[in-house]
Amino acid sequence: xxxxxxxxxxxxxxxxxxxxxxxxxxxxxxxxxxxxxxxxxxxxxxxxxxxxxxxxxxxxxxxxxxxxxxxxxxxxxxxxxxxxxxxxxxxxxxxxxxxxxxxxxxxxxxxxxxxxxxxxxxxxxxxxxxxxxxxxxxxxxxxxxxxxxxxxxxxxxxxxxxxxxxxxxxxxxxxxxxxxxxxxxxxxxxxxxxxxxxxxxxxxxxxxxxxxxxxxxxxxxxxxxxxxxxxxxxxxxxxxxxxxxxxxxxxxxxxxxxxxxxxxxxxxxxxxxxxxxxxxxxxxxxxxxxxxx
Length: 293
Known about the structure:
The protein is built from 12 helices and 7 strands.
């Protein structure tokens, strides 16, 4: 599932050499809501991107420059990032005696071994790994092989600019909250996450590139359609845990933030701002006037 590939930055990725930028026709969607003493911009990000995709445009640049605070999904401080490995070990390990291969049907176990080896990963070293973490590790490695890395993702790029400009940093979730989004999945949903990931890596049907292109040109309708197809395949448990439940919690936080003052630029995964139950729709349903598509 392309939109889950970098839900949590659990694996490092090598910096790939750059190339000529592919300029989209347009720029990613941006929304704005404001009151008398504050304004909030909402920008749908992609956490891992290829180096050659151009996505920064004048609307984004103007909004980002005007903000004095940069808010992301989770804490991006070096201390918080360093703690992710500890959290992954706590929530991503199978109980003593359990083996990942034993949890998979024979055909899925064979596909897992083939996929891991094709990606340069020893499947034996993942035997104590829970299905949700194995899926993320395979997905991140697959994305990196395709040239999509966190190094070029929206949050990484904008965080560097925010530090240079002296902006305040804030976040919607702790690293532990974000890890537990998948770590607390029911066993059957967790296994579905892994088996679907294996099949999507094997098929590699170009959905990742199609989503990137739709996002970069601000085509929210196409992006929503692609995402909705993925969520139907994932099933309601994963959709609720990863998107719908978090959207409701984030809407509460954004509404409270608007009650304060100052200008905030919020970057969260684009899947949270389009499609069913998205944050923009929830804010509008509460009576907020939100400018944008």
